[in-house]
């Protein structure tokens, strides 16, 4: 499987370096730090990720 990482259009910082990248892993969503992509990435289930996004929007 070829993992394609993407950034939010709302990413900020110099050269958009302060952001989180996301990828569809098939079994969930991968999350990684754009400044340190080689450190690995945790994954979260799609349903849980949706809940996380909704919680962040509320705050």
Quickly give the structural class: alpha+beta
Task: Give the oligomer, counting copies of the same chain as homo and different chains as hetero.
Answer: single chain
Largest sheet: 4 strands, antiparallel
In which range does the helix fraction lie?
10-25%
> So how many helices?
1
What is the count of β-strands?
Answer: 4
Order of helices and strands: EEEEH
| Cα Rg | 12 Å
Strand percentage: 15-25%
> In whole angstroms, how far apart are the ends?
35 Å
Tell me the domain tally: 1
Principal-axis shape? globular
Q: Mean pLDDT score, rounded?
A: 85
In which order are the strands of the major sheet placed?
A: 1-2-3-4
The unreliable regions are none
Brief rundown of the structure:
Residues 4-57 form the DUF397 domain. The protein contains 1 helix and 4 strands; from the N terminus they run ββββα.
Can you tell me about this structure?
The protein has 59 residues and is α+β, with helices and mostly antiparallel strands. It has one domain. The protein is globular. 2% of the residues are buried. The N and C termini lie far apart (35 Å). It has 1 helix and 4 strands; from the N terminus they run E-E-E-E-H. The protein has one helix at residues 46-58, and strands spanning 6-7, 20-24, 29-33, 43-44. The mean pLDDT is 85. Strands 1-2-3-4 form a 4-stranded antiparallel sheet. The longest helix has 13 residues, at 46-58.
């Amino acid at each position: 499987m070829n993992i394609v990482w993407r950034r939010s259009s709302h990413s900020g910082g110099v050269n958009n370096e302060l952001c989180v990248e996301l990828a569809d892993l098939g079994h969930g969503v991968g999350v990684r730090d754009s400044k340190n992509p080689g450190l690995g990435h945790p994954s979260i289930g799609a349903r849980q990720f949706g809940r996380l996004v909704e919680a962040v929007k509320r705050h």
